[in-house]
Amino acid sequence: MNLSLFIAKRYFLSKKKKNFINIISLIAMSALAIGSASLIIILSVFNGLEDLIRSLHNYFDPQLKIEVVEGKSFEVDEKFLQSIRNLEGVEIVTEVIEDNVVIAYRNSKMVVKLKGVSDNFIDQHRLDDRIVQGDLKLRENNVNYAIIGVGVQYILGVVNLKELFALRIYYPNREAKSTFNTSKMINTKSLLTAGVFAIEKQYDANYIFAPLDFAKDLMDYEDRRSYLEIKVDNGYSISNVQSNLKNLLGDKFRVLNSDEQHQSLIRAVKVEKFIVFLIVALIVAILSFNSFFSLTMLAIDKRKDISVLFSLGADRKLIKKIFIWESILISFIGAFIGLCIGTLFCVIQQQFGILKLGMATSVMENYPVKIQVLDYFYIFIVITLITIIAAIKPSNLASNIKILRFI
Asked: Considering 216, 240, 258, which residue would you say is the last residue of a domain?
């Protein structure tokens, strides 16, 4: 057995001559346990929030999005679309026309984003679980329908979806010349409401879906599209399909995955998570001063034992190792207990949701948590650094006791 570890274990388990050293050691272990539990809980909550953001956006956003680098829209033809469809791993290519429009219903008006999508948008099944009223359909018996957000429904006062009172959509006529007849400057079309979706306020109060042909006629887009949405076939890697699309389309187009479509938001969450982690880690480091004082008092308490070890041939390296191992035992036992408590709390939160968000308008009732193995690695690094820093001074003090006794 490692001699330094054996002696450190004896020191750790034995009752010290001065009881306050035991108390300081327990305080040091408790502080590290609380700090470790706090770290894993905080990191798991941020992981849960990040996953929640992704899941909400995935209902609305495609797996891959193709948009032009310069400009607002680009021209497509059947050959161009077919080249994308033929790419291995591409299951569905949905054409999209999107722009701001004015929508009116009875005496209410508002500005929304009209998202005109081709018929195969329904086959992507992104909105299947988010329809809270009516049906998920864009066209039936040659009649065009709209799917509106629940926020749009509330502002416009659309109550009965089965009534024949239609939505009026207004969009500037790009080709109209200056005229005193304002009716010729505005394109106007009507839509019946088929269903209402609820995802998140950002979408619910700002978007309506309509058939692609309806949007094309209203906005005079003809063969131009705002972007294309790609659904990747099951069994294929999204990143591989994204890379192949980039090679196919060249530098004139961007191919964005889900995170890249909301890069600033995802980055903000990651930065906030990192900053909070650093703050809590700093608090844990400050609390670890108890470990430093405990080791220092132990070095003073064990002066006679250290002198005996020196007389038996022990060198300074061995004495330093004893106190480094002592620091490791205090730190890692405390951290292990804390991680067990933190993990247990996260599991209970996942299963029973004991911690509530407390907001009536929140998209979920409980704080989301997600445990990631990588977080334990980060905490291990922090605890290791704290252990090394806390052990340096006491181990040096203990290794110099022999010299101090005989000067």
From this structure: 258
* 153-184 tens-digit pLDDT: 999 999 888 777 899 999 988 766 555 556 67
pLDDT attached to residue 151:
93
pTM of the model: 0.75
Tell me, letter by letter, the H, E, C secondary structure of the chain.
CCHHHHHHHHHHHCCCCCHHHHHHHHHHHHHHHHHHHHHHHHHHHHHHHHHHHHHHHHHHCCCEEEEECCCCCEECCHHHHHHHHCCCCEEEEEEEEEEEEEEEECCEEEEEEEEEECHHHHHHCCCHHHEEEECCCCEECCEEEEEEEHHHHHHHCCCCCCCCCCEEEEEECCCCCCCCCHHHCEEEEEEEEEEEECCCHHHHCCEEEEEHHHHHHHHCCCCEECEEEEEECCCCCHHHHHHHHHHHHHHHEEEEEHHHHCHHHHHHHHHHHHHHHHHHHHHHHHHCHHHHHHHHHHHHHCHHHHHHHHHCCCCHHHHHHHHHHHHHHHHHHHHHHHHHHHHHHHHHHHHHCCCECCCCCCCCCECCCCCCHHHHHHHHHHHHHHHHHHHHHHHHHHHCHHHHHHC
Please compute the mean of the pLDDT values over residues 126-153 and round it to a whole number.
Answer: 92
- Domain extent, residue 135, equals 63-258
How many structural domains are present in the chain? 2
Among 232, 258, 284, identify where a domain stops: 258
Is residue 96 located within the same domain as residue 154? Answer: yes
Is the pLDDT confidence value at 280 over 50? yes
pLDDT for residue 211 is more than 60: yes
- Residues 231 and 270 both lie in one domain: no
19-28, 117-126, 326-335, 366-375: the lowest-pLDDT one:
19-28
